Amino acid sequence: MKSKITVAVFFGGNSNEREISVITGMLAANLLRETYRIVPVYLLPEGGMATGAFRGPADFKKGSKTKFVPVHLAGRALFSRRRKVATIDCALNCCHGGQGEDGTLSALLRFHGVPSASPEVPMSAVFMDKILTKVVARGLDIPTLPAFFAYEGRGATYHAEAEALGYPVIVKPARLGSSIGIKVAKDAEELDRALDLAFRLDSAALVEAYAEGKRDVNCAAYRVGGETVLSPLEEVFSDREILTFSEKYERNTRTSELPARLKEETAARIRTYTKLLYETFGGRGVVRADFLIAGDEVYFNELNTVPGSLACHLFSNSLTGSRDFLIKLIEETLNEPPMSKEVLVSGILEGDLFGGGKSAKKR
User: Fold this and answer.
1) Which residues contact 349 (CB under 8 A, 6 or more apart)?
2) Which of 40, 95, 98, 166 is most enclosed, with most CB atoms within 10 A?
3) The dihedral sign for the CA sequence 135, 137, 139, 145
């Protein structure tokens, strides 16, 4: 055991995907316990952090007697009140959705100088937002389905825009994941209902052309030794209009094929787009890019910066292999140069520049 290395596994948060995050966090923590000193850090739904003797999802069920110890960061040290719990060598983000995945946690860790084996703020913030995702993809000339953006409180019906796209359309809350709040609308009445649902959950929505007969294909990426490593492509099947939350996460409902049976040209395009997205943002940790295939066309759908189970299953079909994969992510971070760079200090506060002045500016 690398006893001197402490890894903090962050999970939970105020998100519709909090429960899935608990499962991912406990999976990662338990896989890594034999290699590192693991400190599980649960982001409380009401705000704040807690640690404890967490061993599995059952510790987070209602009525559990597991003790939650409030903690906070001060630099790389994790404190419970005034007692230092640990000094963190590396963090692993297992928070799906919300302020765990949208860059907020990444920013907090960077502010405190905690090295993270997960994507940083720009990538996290952009790809948590489906509207920004669409803008970035267009800028990189990566094909996406035609769409428009809808905003709560603008007093617009968006009927004309939907007519221009052509029904059916698919309505997605801009900053949610796991298919939560997503609806297919076949006419204006259904569009209104779908937008009402989206605006109950978010303040903006993406309304996109619906690809009949689409295929859902995933590709994950991570960095090791400075090189981008891509997973085999996975096709996920659904007998419904969209891939649902239950099909993604509930036992015995997910069906997929790994590797997916695709034309080599199609597979090559997906790999190229995934690598381009990852490297454009200076990728760190593991991400999963999701694509839609309609006929011979490939469309980028979204990029998950904290994918379910950290995409372990795309790189290994065993728990041992999954553990080794997570260790690669940790070791890559531990081997990187220090996060801090030189900060220039002008010395302006040491002079008398403001002496007797009426403002902080020299005119």
Assistant:
1) none
2) 95
3) negative
Q: Would you call 131 helix, strand, or coil by DSSP?
A: helix
Structural domain of 232: 213-305
Read off the CATH number of the domain in which 112 is found: 3.40.50.20
From first to last of the 363 residues of the chain, give the pLDDT tens digit: 555 899 999 999 988 889 999 999 999 999 999 999 999 999 999 999 999 999 999 999 988 999 999 999 999 999 999 899 999 999 999 999 889 999 999 999 999 999 999 999 999 999 999 999 999 999 999 999 999 999 998 867 899 999 999 999 999 999 887 678 899 999 999 999 999 999 999 999 999 999 988 999 999 999 999 899 999 999 998 776 665 545 454 555 568 899 999 999 999 999 999 999 999 999 999 999 999 999 889 999 999 999 999 999 999 999 999 999 999 999 999 998 876 778 888 888 888 766 655 555 555
The single-letter code of the amino acid at 292 is L
Tell me the CATH number at 167: 3.30.1490.20
- In-domain check, residue 91: yes
Does residue 161 lie within any of the structural domains? Answer: yes
Dihedral (C-alpha) 238, 297, 295, 261: value to the nearest 10 degrees?
Answer: -60
User: What is the DSSP annotation of 296-352?
Assistant: TEEEEEEEESS-GGGGHHHH-SSHHHHHHHHHHHHHHHHTSPPS--------GGGS-
Domain-ending residue, one of 171, 193, 209: 209
pTM: 0.89
Domain boundary among 270, 288, 305: 305
Same domain, 86 and 70: yes
Contact 60, 22 (CB under 8 A): yes
On whether both 247 and 291 belong to a single domain, the answer is: yes
Q: Are residues 10 and 110 in the same domain?
A: yes
User: Nearest-CA neighbor of 330 among 29, 15, 23, 11?
Assistant: 29
